[in-house]
Amino acid sequence: MKKKLLALGSSLLSLAMCTAVAAEAADVPAAEAPASNAAAIAASDAAAAAPEDISTKPRGFYAGGSVGGSFFEGPSKGSKIFYDGSGDGNGDGQADAFTVDDLSQENNFMWTAFVGYRMADWLGAEVGWTDIGGFRATDVNDSSDITDPPHNNHVKTKVDGVEARLRAWVPLGTERVSGIGGVGIFIFSQHGPKVCDGPNKGACQKGPGHDASEPPALDPTEDSGQAFTISAGLQFKVTENVLIRTEYQHFFNVLDQGVDMVTASVVVGFYDLFGQGSAGGDSLDGIAVE
Questions:
Q1: Cα torsion through 254, 260, 266, 272, rounded to 10
Q2: CA angle (95, 101, 104) in 5-degree steps
Q3: Domain encompassing residue 208
Q4: Does residue 237 lie within any of the structural domains?
Q5: Cα–Cα nearest to 97, from 34, 42, 29, 148
Q6: Does residue 118 lie within any of the structural domains?
Q7: For the domain that residue 95 is a member of, what is the CATH number?
Q8: How far apart (Å, rounded) are the C-alpha atoms in residues 245 and 126?
Q9: Which of 213, 87, 190, 89 has the alpha carbon at shortest distance from 136?
Q10: 131 has which bridge partners?
Q11: Do the domain assignments include residue 47?
């Protein structure tokens, strides 16, 4: 009897232990896949479903041309740009100075041709040739001075040169229109011979230099130089590679004066010429302008 009780007790103890182990196992939560794996799978699926970007990026080379109007502020009649020599190099009995009595024709047609490189959505660089026109200065004899030989001399100067500038684009919340601006340097020289009318032709002897008359009307030491430039305007996208600009620009200190310009430009982009604008190209800071 005692043995039977021991066997029964042992069986009940074994059954209890098995039941406890099973209960403990039931309390342990089932193992789950790492959240990072699930997120990675979801991201991969989303990337596969997203449409491929096949648009051309506005990067790389472009070229264009501008036409417009230039408006010289007008030099003073005593400006340092006019030749003020006191000698009598031409032998007409008068000082060689070009004494200005009248200034006119300060508003002109202007044009420019340029090439550029757009290195990012918002930044590029340009270099081109610009003809900004000029003005007319006239020197006539003083009728009250009987020692002043009759003359009617004038110079119609024309200014042109190389302009280099940094170009910036600013998004305006629409794909078709962006703000545009620039800062640069204009390296210029002036051209235009002095013309003499009236009995006294002595002031128009043939001479060297930009002003092919001797003595000159404009001081040769002041007829070239460098000018700082700034500009601002709007750019309109006609197609992915054809753009139109309208812009205001100011040139500082060209022949001792400022020059204002209003221009309209056509620009053609060669963004995919060497693959710079190919689909999937990088953008700087994610700024999309066009």
A1: 60
A2: 135
A3: 61-270
A4: yes
A5: 148
A6: yes
A7: 2.40.160.20
A8: 14
A9: 190
A10: 111, 160
A11: no
Both tokens assigned to 140: 């006539």
Q: What does the block give as tokens for 15?
A: 């059954």
In Å, how far are 99, 103, 243 from 134, measured between CA atoms? Answer: 18, 11, 29
Q: How far apart are CA 107 and CA 72, in angstroms?
A: 6
Beta carbons within 8 Å of 70's beta carbon, 6+ residues apart = 107, 108, 109, 110, 132, 133, 259, 260, 261
CA dist 247 and 71 (Å) reads: 14
Has residue 282 been placed in a domain?
Answer: no
Taking the model in full, what pTM does it have?
0.71
Q: pLDDT digits over 90-136, tens only?
A: 666 677 888 898 999 999 999 999 999 998 888 999 999 999 999 99
Domains identified in the chain, total number? 1
Alpha helix (H) ranges present in 50-195? none
Name, in order, each residue with C-beta under 8 angstroms of 43's C-beta and a sequence gap of 6 or more.
none
> Which two structure tokens, joined as six digits, stand for 12?
């009940």
CA-wise closest residue to 266 among 118, 110, 57, 62? 62
Kindly report, residue by residue over 36-62, the tens digit of the pLDDT: 566 656 556 655 555 555 555 678 899
